[in-house]
Design a protein that fits this description.
The complex is a heterotrimer of chains A (675), B (360) and C (282).
Chain A lengths: L1 E6 L8 E7 L2 E7 L12 H4 L1 H5 L9 E4 L2 E4 L2 H19 L4 E5 L5 H15 L4 E3 L2 H15 L16 E5 L3 H4 L1 H12 L3 E5 L12 E3 L6 H15 L4 H7 E2 L1 H8 L4 H8 L3 H13 L3 E6 L7 H14 L8 E5 L5 H6 L16 H11 L11 H4 L10 E5 L3 H4 L5 H7 L2 E6 L11 E4 L8 E4 L4 E5 L12 H11 L9 H11 L8 H4 L5 E2 L23 E2 L18 E6 L15 H13 L4 E4 L1 H6 L7 E5 L4 E8 L7 E5 L3 H8 L8 E8 L3
Parallel strand pairs in A: 6-7, 6-14, 8-9, 8-12, 9-10, 11-20, 12-13, 14-15, 15-16, 21-25, 22-24
Antiparallel strand pairs in A: 1-2, 2-3, 4-5, 4-16, 17-18, 18-19, 21-26, 22-25, 23-24, 23-26
Helix pairs in contact in A: 3-19, 4-19, 4-20, 5-13, 8-11, 8-12, 8-13
Chain B lengths: L3 E4 L3 H10 L3 E7 L5 E5 L27 E10 L2 E6 L6 E6 L1 H15 L6 H8 L1 E6 L14 H4 L11 E5 L3 E6 L2 H7 L5 E2 L2 H15 L9 H10 L4 H10 L5 H5 L6 E9 L2 E8 L20 H13 L1 H7 L9 H5 L6 H13 L8
Parallel strand pairs in B: 2-6, 6-7, 7-8
Antiparallel strand pairs in B: 1-9, 1-10, 2-3, 4-5, 4-12, 8-9, 11-12
Helix pairs in contact in B: 8-10
Chain C lengths: L10 E10 L4 E8 L2 H7 L7 E6 L3 E6 L9 E6 L3 H7 L6 E8 L12 E7 L3 H13 L7 E7 L8 H7 L5 E7 L11 E2 L18 E6 L2 H14 L6 E4 L15 E2 L2 E2 H4 L2 E3 H5 L6
Parallel strand pairs in C: 7-8, 7-11, 8-9, 9-10, 11-12
Antiparallel strand pairs in C: 1-2, 1-6, 2-5, 3-4, 3-6, 12-15, 13-14
The chains are: A alpha/beta (675), B alpha+beta (360), C alpha/beta (282).
Chain lengths: 675, 360, 282
């Protein structure tokens, strides 16, 4: 028997936990009491890691599609096949006809090698991770406004926060450990303010709940800024020293009107005021939002950061901006440059100086033209121009809510899939490579608090299966590249040379305590718990004025409801890992079992007005289309809105019609459908 | 019980003795920071065994009811179906199991070996399991903030249900046997007869230890009464439910929780394995029936259920054991701070706040 | 090898034949591959259930609709979840797993000399069928027997041939009803919920020295109990079989526990008096 401290593979909190092993099997899991991120608490998913990791239902042998069917092949066959086909397609259609997409669950090492492969061997910038459509706007806004594309403080500091704002994310279901931290902070006296269209468990513990109409977040935060300015509660010394463009920002903020904003947002003006003043007046206050499924649009994020700068809530313990990541390595994949327009470390591919530094390190030229994102690749626009797609642990046919991955992949000449299991995406794959599972390889993940942690190898992978990173190396070698990595520690060393903020994060250092939070450099080997702790450079931050929103989507008599396509909990059931635990499957699949055709969440008061009972068939009609679904009565839904999970593709396409994907807020009318 | 004495320096020799007798000895070790865990003793780690340390949060119940356990294999071929049970009967000794956890194992004995049926898988693991209990005597190391074994009357020193009990008296340790297996161990020459002074020392240490518990939910017995009567306000359960994040942690770490689910997994063509995995009544799907009806849909109903199962006198009478041993683990792993101690406190507060006095 | 019996180990069962009943419902006639197992199993009591294994999918509890007095053993199962759907794919000769019988069953001997009133809704007739056939096999032991049975539509009435046969026995009445009659189906009988049958003139339901068996969906159960109590029945003379999500069937996994009772071992048969005292809503 053995116990190894490692970090979790599910969400971006990066909880510390111990995996118990015996006879090369993972037989148990328990939380680490001392780990700073979770302090002894994990969520239901973590508690069933042992069940998931030990699932016998694994892909063991590579497969190549011959005569229309996936058939077993040898590793050499598979690698040579891939190398040959990639060369062919690159010759025939050009480097940009190839796209490499990975899951935000991939390790830093995998992500780094994949983008290096794309840039140095294929010569394309068409790299992206599957969650880019949710998180890239946060990355861009934060880089622009505060120069750091990540959470500024640490999770355990929430215990010191005097005020916490949770913006539009069901923490209890998506990031339970953070929800717990927030609830416990409240129990100790912090003031908890929650915004968002839907009520949820954390709301039950909130001091102020601003249940704003969908799509009005930027207006809400702008109105809060206006309140702070009207009261003179802004932190002028902070602003003077550290922020640019304050005047431009003020000019725009003064256009906001509290009462008008309250009306459009559908929340009480006095509550907006109370929330704003509490936040500005707090000794330390934190804002939390998600870069996952319940992500904010660019304007909302800008508005939140503006609020933070206005109140000077940066650079001290218990304050800051928490751009929460909902995948274990979303942060890491971005850090590693799995982005079509950024290199590892977030330098732009367009920047000649930065590019030349990489070219020197990698000893070859790399393309300067930004690539296309996953959303583009897997939508109609990708059809015809993308001929090959490499999917590393990514299962877009099951999990991508945008576009139509199945259609696009079908049209490709080559689809490479690296995964643990056969998934729905495999139907379109030309070659499938089984990969090692979490716990079967020593890699690193970077959590949402910038914590680079070792995800340790605790057992051997099933015989014959190699890590995904090793497969990438073999294929690179088959394509003529001189790649030699003995271990993932080597890869991390190389990462340290091209991404300075990882330069101190070698495996030896990471193994000492609980990983290290970047920037972790040779001068700061212990890492950085909260950014700007040693002082903020002059003019480091920038305000960005946000155009005042009048109304996100206007409802009228004909279309009195706002239909929001989204959903928190239910995304997880599409996740390949969740499906391998009886309990997790049962818990996350429940809504699908109760409402197999999908459902539209509706507030019971609204349902009553229409004579609708739980489980009744209802018709939703929009300008773009109409669909029939089942009503799911739920007090969490805001009256006047309807919620629909967007993984039920058929229903989604019916209602969105030609608008197809990307839109997640439209107005509809509702009627009960007779049998 | 006969009290025997051994030198402090000889205590780990008990581990060596058990290993020589063919036991896989499980003992507590330090992890990182304040983490601790039970692990198999090897030549390599034998000297790192800790006597005084925070009680590992991963409960030792997993040595009789594993976190995941293989029950059987089924193989179908040529129209035939072969069903084979998978039995494991390890010979194990847990060195350093705490008194609260000893009570937990006893409770599981009552549950799995009593009631209407005997659980053979549990029996196989329990049969050759030796419990060497170590009494909690070090207030800084042994007693966690959440411990309340005193309120559940399971500690700091078990009175029964262990094979051997060791207690730190300073330069010497006291050893008592609870079973014939324990007595067998005491025949080793490292043990000598105890004196009256040792008994007095033991009493003095225990009296002192009892004053060091940080968590004194003295309202525990009243809670048992109110829970059994079902007279706790719905409002209280709603408040508790509002803070519960349905993670299952409380049930998983509880030494006296027993629920599990069963899952079939594909091993290969025509071959499956059936495993059982810890499950939790905290979860919404725990009682959901095919077809959708769920008698315990609301989270506060499930919270109500948990504490009813833990404390109701009906179960205590039927099982002759209480399903809460006062170890405090549920409090340690709970996101929303609604472990047993907090819930007892909340019930106390809301129940005592109902004052029916009026001025007239 | 081991002193205790393995309560979780299913034994191989073979499908003999399958009949289609109503939509989504099939009856599977089966027997244990091992004749000793079969012999031991046939000693089951009305109201007991068995755990049915579809290896690779899972296990589920199935009521035993046959009376132990009948020759064939069978299950009548609606396809509603993954296990039952997998069962529905079985053909004669296929093998699956069964273990049991479990549960307390109806104490039919305690009811000797009494009138028996059976009230069933929808597939609730399945577990009660065992009692009815048993009672008819021991006709002289019981006084009057009445069966009140209703479904949503005529097409959803279970065991129609049996019902017709039962009505031919002396002192046995079978009254049927449907919630509604769709235009496409034939139906001459009563239209209304099961409780409406009690109000038909000429229906004389004995209350003294009578046991009322009730089985059906939760809503139907509530209303029928109300009607029976209004007629004068006492809680201890109304008996039902409760349905819960079950995983082990032997009182260990915890899923079926309601209040103080584990339904699989202390039930599934409970009197209404006991149900009221369970400590939790069903």
């Amino acid at each position: 028997m053995a116990h190894r401290l490692t970090t979790c593979t599910f969400c971006g909190v990066g909880c510390g936990l111990y995996l118990e092993t015996a006879d090369n099997r993972v037989i148990g899991v328990s939380p680490s009491m001392s780990h700073p991120a979770n302090e002894g608490k994990i969520c239901l998913r973590g508690w069933h890691l042992h069940e998931v990791i030990s699932t016998p239902d694994r892909l063991r042998i590579p497969m190549i599609r011959k005569d229309g069917r996936l058939q077993e092949a040898t590793w050499d066959e598979a690698f040579n096949f891939i190398a040959a086909r990639l060369k062919e397609i690159r010759e025939k259609h050009g480097p940009d006809s190839i796209a490499l997409l990975n899951s935000p669950r991939c390790s830093n090492e995998e992500a780094y090698l994949l983008q290096k492969f794309a840039r140095t061997i294929i010569k394309t910038n068409n790299v992206d991770h599957g969650a880019g459509v949710y998180s890239n706007n946060s990355t861009d806004v934060l880089l622009d406004m505060i120069g750091v594309p990540a959470t500024t403080n640490s999770f355990h500091e929430l215990a010191q926060s005097e005020v916490i704002i949770v913006s539009s994310v069901d923490l209890g279901k998506r990031l339970p450990t953070i929800a717990g931290a927030v609830i416990r902070a409240r129990l100790k006296g912090a003031k908890l303010i929650v915004t968002g269209t839907r009520s949820h468990r954390v709301v039950k513990n909130a001091d102020i709940f601003l249940q704003n109409k969908p799509g009005t977040d930027s207006l809400l935060y702008g109105a809060m800024a206006k309140v702070i300015v009207d009261h003179g509660s802004m932190n002028l010394p902070f602003i003077k020293k550290h922020c640019r463009d304050y005047d431009k920002f003020i000019a725009k903020v003064l256009e906001y009107d509290l009462l008008e904003a309250a009306e459009v947002c559908g929340v009480r003006a006095d509550l907006i005021e109370a929330a704003a003043l509490a936040y500005a007046g707090a000794r330390s206050a934190a804002i939390l939002y998600s870069t996952g499924l319940e992500y904010g649009d660019t304007d909302s994020i800008k508005a939140m950061v503006n609020l933070c700068l206005l109140s000077g809530q940066l650079g001290k313990e218990g304050s800051g901006i928490f751009a929460l990541t909902e995948h274990n390595n979303l942060q890491g994949c971005c850090d590693m440059g799995m982005l079509p327009d950024r290199l590892p470390g977030y330098g732009s591919v367009r920047d000649d100086l930065i590019r030349s530094q990489f070219e020197k390190q990698w000893k070859t030229e790399i393309p300067s033209r930004p690539g296309v994102a996953a959303k583009w690749v897997l939508s109609d626009r990708g059809k015809g121009s993308i001929h090959a797609v490499w999917l590393c642990r990514y299962d877009p046919v099951s999990t991508a809510f945008f576009g139509n991955a199945a259609d696009c992949l079908e049209q490709c000449d080559l689809v490479i899939q690296q995964h643990l299991f056969l998934t729905e995406t495999s139907r379109y794959a030309h070659v499938v490579l089984p990969t090692a599972m979490f716990g079967e390889e020593q890699v690193t993940f970077t959590s949402g608090e910038r914590r680079i942690q070792l995800a340790k190898q605790v057992i051997d992978p099933p015989s014959g299966i190699a890590s995904a990173w090793k497969q990438i190396v073999r294929i690179a070698q088959a394509m003529g590249a001189d790649w030699n990595y003995e271990s993932t520690a080597d890869i991390m060393d190389e990462i340290g040379t091209v991404a300075p903020f990882y330069s101190g994060a070698n495996y030896e250092n990471l193994a000492r305590e609980y990983g290290r939070q970047w920037p972790c450099t040779k001068d700061r080997p212990l890492g950085t718990p909260f950014l700007f702790s040693e002082g903020i450079p002059r003019d480091a931050f920038k305000f960005i004025p946000v155009e005042r929103l009048h109304e996100a989507v206007v409802t009228n008599k004909e279309y009195p409801f706002l239909l929001v396509l989204g959903h928190s909990l239910y995304y997880w059931h599409r996740n390949a890992l969740i499906r391998h635990s009886e309990t997790l499957r049962r818990e996350y699949q429940a809504p699908l079992l109760d409402y197999p055709e999908g459902f539209a969440g509706i507030h019971p008061d609204d349902a009553k007005k229409y004579g609708i009972h739980d489980g009744d068939r209802i018709r939703l009609r929009a300008d773009s289309g109409s669909t029939v679904t089942l009503a799911a009565l739920n007090h969490e839904i805001r009256s006047g809105t309807l919620f629909m999970p967007f993984f039920v593709k058929q229903v989604e396409h019916q209602i969105l019609g030609p608008l197809k994907s990307g839109v997640h807020l439209i107005r509809v009318c509702l009627e009960k459908e007779e049998e | 019980m006969k009290a025997r004495i051994l030198n402090r320096t000889d205590v780990l020799k008990i581990v060596d003795l058990l290993r020589r007798q063919g036991y896989e000895v499980i003992a507590p070790f330090h992890g990182r920071g304040r983490d601790t865990f039970f692990d198999t003793v090897t030549d390599e780690n034998r000297d790192r065994i800790q006597i005084h340390l925070p009680n590992p949060y991963y409960p030792p119940k997993r040595f009789v009811l594993p976190h995941i356990e293989h029950l059987l294999k089924a193989h179908s071929s040529n129209g035939g179906l072969k069903i084979e049970p998978i039995y494991e009967q390890p010979k194990r000794a847990i060195f350093g199991i705490r008194s609260c956890d000893v009570a937990g194992i006893y409770h599981l004995d009552r549950f799995f070996l009593g009631r209407e049926f005997r659980d053979i898988y549990y029996e196989n693991r329990r049969r050759n399991l030796l419990l060497v209990n170590i009494v909690c005597t070090d207030p800084d190391e042994d007693i966690n903030r959440e411990c309340f074994c005193m309120c559940a009357d399971t500690g700091p020193a078990s009175r029964e249900h262990f094979d051997l009990q060791l207690m730190d008296l300073g330069d010497e340790f006291m050893a008592v046997a609870g079973t014939s297996e324990g007595e067998e161990i005491l025949t080793d020459p490292m043990f000598r007869k105890g004196e009256e002074s040792h008994i007095q020392k033991r009493t003095a240490i225990l009296n002192d230890v009892r004053t060091h518990f940080k968590n004194t939910t003295s309202w525990f017995s009243a809670t048992v009464r109110y829970v059994s009567q079902g007279s706790i306000l719905d409002k209280t359960w709603e408040i508790i439910g509002d803070r519960c994040l349905e993670c299952g942690g409380c049930t998983y770490v509880c030494p006296a929780c027993t629920c599990f689910t069963v899952s079939d997994r594909q091993l290969g063509p025509g071959e499956i394995e059936r495993v059982r995995v810890w499950d939790s009544c905290a979860l919404a799907g725990f009682t959901r029936m095919a077809g959708g009806h769920n008698p315990r849909r609301a989270v506060h109903d499930r919270r109500n259920r948990r504490f009813f199962r833990k404390l109701a006198s009906h179960f205590i009478q039927k099982e002759l054991s209480m399903a809460c041993v006062g170890c405090g683990r549920c409090a340690a792993v709970c996101h929303g701070d609604v472990g047993m101690p907090s819930v007892v406190e909340m019930i106390r507060r809301t129940t005592t706040e109902i004052d029916k006095h009026e001025p007239k | 090898m081991n002193p205790s019996e393995n309560i979780y180990l299913p034994k191989t069962a073979i499908v003999d034949r399958v009949t289609d009943d109503i939509a989504d419902v099939k009856t599977f006639y089966w027997h244990f591959e091992d004749s000793e197992e079969q012999k031991a199993f046939k000693k089951f009591r009305p109201g007991q259930f068995a755990q049915v294994s579809l290896f690779g999918v899972g296990e589920f509890p199935a009521s035993l609709p046959p009376s132990p007095t009948e020759d064939e053993t069978f299950f009548t199962i609606r396809s509603v979840g993954s296990c039952t759907t997998a069962l529905h794919r079985l053909k004669p000769g296929d093998r699956f797993g069964v273990r049991g019988p479990y549960g307390n069953g109806f104490p039919m001997e305690d009811y000797y000399g009494k009138n028996l009133v059976f009230v069933a809704g929808g597939i609730g007739l399945i577990p009660l069928r065992s009692c009815i056939v048993y009672a008819l096999k021991h006709r002289d032991k019981y006084d009057r027997i009445q069966v009140f049975y209703g479904s949503k539509t005529p097409g959803e009435l279970m065991y129609l041939p049996n019902l017709r046969e039962w009505a031919t026995f002396a002192g046995v009445e079978c009254r049927l009803t449907v919630d509604r009659k769709p235009p496409t189906e034939e139906w001459e009988g009563n239209v209304g919920v099961v409780g409406s049958l009690f109000k038909i003139p000429g229906t004389n339901i004995p209350v003294d020295n009578t046991v009322a068996f009730v089985c059906g969906p939760p809503i139907m159960f509530r209303f029928v109990i109300r009607d029976l109590l209004a007629l004068g029945f006492q809680g201890q003379n109304i008996v039902s079989t409760l349905e819960r999500y079950m995983k082990c069937g032997v009182g260990k996994c915890g899923h079926c526990c309601i209040g103080v009772a584990y339904v699989c071992t202390e039930g599934p048969v409970f009197t209404y008096e006991q149900i009221k005292k369970l400590g939790e809503d069903i």
